[in-house]
Amino acid sequence: MQVSVLPAGDVEKNVLEALDADLRRAGVGVTTLPSQGVPGAAHNPERDQYRAPELLKMGRRAHGEHVLVVTEVDLYVDPLNFVFGQADVGGQAAVISLHRLSPDDSRLFRFRALKEALHELGHNVGLDHCPEATCVMHFSNELADTDRKGPNLCPDCVERVGGEPPWRVPA
Ligand SMILES: [Zn+2]
Ligand SMILES: [Zn+2]
To answer: CA-to-CA distance for 139 and 131, rounded, in angstroms?
Structure first.
């Protein structure tokens, strides 16, 4: 699959480079677009958080087969307190937030970011959440869920997308 990465607001350059390298290693074609500001309409000053659907709209307006918006701001979607990301199921746009991925351990942070990116891209290729806890399409309610799952699709999810995985992260 082909993905255009669209940074929204300030995103550390080394984080974008790592994501680019990790996606390529998984067999995903990557183009990193010039960054854009986080839309003012996304900010909710009462919560000091940002509305994920507004960042998804940025992705829908950008060029690319799939557009992955990457941001460091904290995202939410009502009625959830926060989300790690959001995506159009069977569509073009996806967004991930790095805000809650705890960058203290850079290797762990990098792996979490990759898994969240692939999870949202999995929605783009039409997948819903998967009950298998080790499948990348399992819903992450907290970081422990993200850490439990792997970066790849389980056999059932591979079957659901027609038998050919859109990416494969080597062990
Ligand atoms: Zn999801
Ligand atoms: Zn699965």
So the answer is: 8
- Reply yes or no on whether 120 is catalytic: yes
Confidence of residue 91 (pLDDT cuts 50, 70, 90): very high
| Ligand number with the minimum distance to the CA of 137 | 2
Question: pTM of this prediction?
Answer: 0.96
Report how far ligand 1's centroid is from the alpha carbon of 168 (Å).
18
Helix (H, G, I), strand (E, B) or coil at 41: helix
- From the candidates 65, 72, 116, 120, which is the catalytic residue? 120
Give the number of other Cβ atoms within 10 Å of residue 129's Cβ: 13
45, 68 Cβ separation under 8 angstroms: no
Residue with structure tokens 């999870």? Answer: 119
CB-based neighbours (< 5 A) of ligand 2, an ion:
130, 132, 135, 137, 154, 157
Domains and CATH numbers, the chain: 2-160 (3.40.390.10)
